[in-house]
Amino acid sequence: KGLIALLLLFFAVICMARSPDQPRLVVLLSIDQMRPDRLSSNLPGGLGRLVREGYVFENATLDHALTNTCPGHVVMSTGRNPANTGIASNSYIDHATGKERYCVDDPGSDHVVLFSYETRSPRAITKSTLADWLKSASPDSRVYAVSGKDRAAITMGGHRADGVFWFHQSLGRFTTSSYYMKALPDYIETMNGDDFFSDGFGAEVPARWEHAAGSHRPDDFVGEGTMHLRVSGHPLNTGAGKANQFYFSPYLDLATGELVRRILVEEELGKRGVTDFLAVSFSATDLIGHLYGPFSAESEDGLAHLDAEMGRLLDLLDDQTEGNYILALSADHGVQPLPEWQREQNDMKCPVGNGRIDVSEAGRSLYARAIAALKLPPGKARELIGLSAAGLTINAKTAAELGLDVDDVVSKIEKIYELDPAFVSAWTQAEILSQDGKFARLYRNSMIPDITGHIMPQAHEDCLVWRPEGTTHGSPWLYDRAVPLIFFGKGIRSGRSDSGAHSIDMAPTLGTKAGLVIPGDLDGRVRKEAFEARD
Using CA atoms, how far apart are residues 104 and 121, in angstroms rounded to an integer? Predict the structure, then answer.
């Protein structure tokens, strides 16, 4: 019996060992809110190297309509559209309870965020991820994911990760969920310090973020966010708001990169005889972009910092794996430029005002018109109609109490949107399922009946429904769906393609290149044109 056990162990080790053709490390990279027109081969650091040496799909897009962070990352890791993953949006109204939910929360569980009472886990993801496929094939492989945001790290790391970490803005430190581990590794505790800004990584962060004026427009530009000043130098490590200042700066990406390098070294990823997995999402581009827009001096400087950080990461990957790794880079979504900038460039299509619609005023207007159309008693409109990133959800219980039919409520609200010149459509779930055309297909790829709203409004192109300052994403228009898509590494050729491709192609392409058996029900496809001829 002892001999049999040894033989079984021997064959198990042989099966788990990496074959000579398999990479030592698979890397899944995301740059949050990255438009492809911001990347260039002229960038001197790692991003420029990827453009120059990798295989670039120049016309890559998201293949779904609700373009925000959570679904944008889960499609990269699963190879499936959001409709088939359980993750439709960052937040949604639960149809059964009427309560707002967060995409990676885990209510009723004991999976708490360390040092917090929040619950976080990948349980809402209903399909397996690239990292899960690797773990099934090779249980000894190590899987790690890091981001500035929990919803990016968790959706990329999957269900079986060894470690998933993110920077918690309120806590002012990197953390994780007890779903993955009960305590942070020592090297992360060292980076956090007793106080992140006194004896941790943040102690080396300067008091202010200083940057040049930028090449597109003046540093101080109308429409930019004023939360941390519109001009250099922005407060960065001063007063009681240090964590918030840090979060909306390039230094969040520098901290993410530092943690990634520590994980690579401490966990010996790519050095252990099996294929390991690393997922990284850089979040500062999104946070800076929301405040200042994609053509601001701040966004330009943030990209320069990230380019240098990517150079350091690629150098370490080269050294640690002896060049034997494969990598794919994309973004979870793009972004609309500031409407004020679009008007100055004579590039504004929105037929309403200056192109900026205050989201709070739009909500109040909707409720007022709903009260009139449905003859609602005071105070009931907000109880009946829930607003979230997933659309408008009608509370069935409240509707019944008011003697209203949900379908009739949906119909009347749809008519309200039809009379609003800022919107081109208000998609009902029935219309999404029955209609043809590009936008219907994109909304179908986002729709999960019990999660997405009864109505998904589509604003007119260039109509920004947001705050009085800054900008956002979330629409099916090309400026929100266009993303970079680059494959890079051993066995990946250098080249460019103008054929259509999507971020859902990342997982099946990397999985196939890594020699994994990939599920047969994926929405993405293997991009073999990126492989060297011998493959």
Answer: 6
